Amino acid sequence: MRKIIIDTDTGSDDAVAIMMCLREPSVDVIALTTVSGNVPVEQATLNCLMSAEIAVGAENVPPVYVGADRPLMRSRVHARNVHGTDGMSDADLIHPTVKPVEGVAACDAIIELVKKYPGEVELATIGPVTNVALAMMKDPETMKQLKCIWTMGTAGFGPGNTTPVSEFNVFADAEAYKVMMDFGVHVYVGGFDLCTAEAAWFRPDTDALMAAGTEAAVYAVRCNETLAKFVEGLQGEPRIDLPDAVSLAPMLWDDIVLEKKPCVSHVVTDNRECYGQVIFYDNRALAAMDSGFEHGYYGKTEANCTVITRLDNALYKKRLAELLTAR
After folding, report:
1. Residues 6+ apart with CB under 8 A from 217
2. Contact in structure between 39 and 33 (CB atoms under 8 Å)
3. How many Cα atoms sit within 13 Å of 306 on the Cβ side?
């Protein structure tokens, strides 16, 4: 069975992605690691523990390791205005009975699990990738043995959600994201542009989940109430955008991917106005750039990532709903 590590800054959309992966029978989530992002790492850890407990029961929660409490170089950035002070709509939902593993940092846990299962571990990142960068810098030889990385990060080929050009997970620690993207392990990118209206939950979707009445379905809706109000303020209608679940769905179900592009990436860290932007060059863009550079663009000639550009959103939503409502 495929072995997955989920690295998360657990806000409300992370919670749905975590439950989706833990309830999907075709993968084995062998660990969860937490990081500062949507909320401080201490709160992210509580939210992660609770979401996992709701998904599979306290006795089946994988090991949870606490990670970086700040980015590599910049000041902390949070998104409490989007997800609530506790990251989960301040609905008094977070009372986990399970505890994180003590005495082992998230980056060390990632290294040890990759060492234990060389060539088998797939890393799913749904927050800032500080833990991942720390592991890569600490033990590059071991981390080269990752099978691949799946990431909710970047704006894809669309606009950003934090600045006009950058997406939150990258903006929160672009230096770490650059380490990950340039490391040499292939990355499958689900950008924010996948989070279209067709992939979101609207009132009929949330009504159906609430009517199903399972603990996971009700929790998934209630923890996202603040996010729904935030999106309503932007879009004029209440809906729940779930970029983390949308971006990890291709990891679980490759048949929902309708379009994808092999690309070369460039993460911007040295320009204030464009900080956190990730530029993707597909074959056509690379050919155009290379025609003006004697040695090719930045010396990169082979794709380091695959950018997923279009999904079967109806099939994704159907399968997600089935997992959340299963008894």
Report:
1. 209, 210, 321, 324, 325
2. no
3. 14
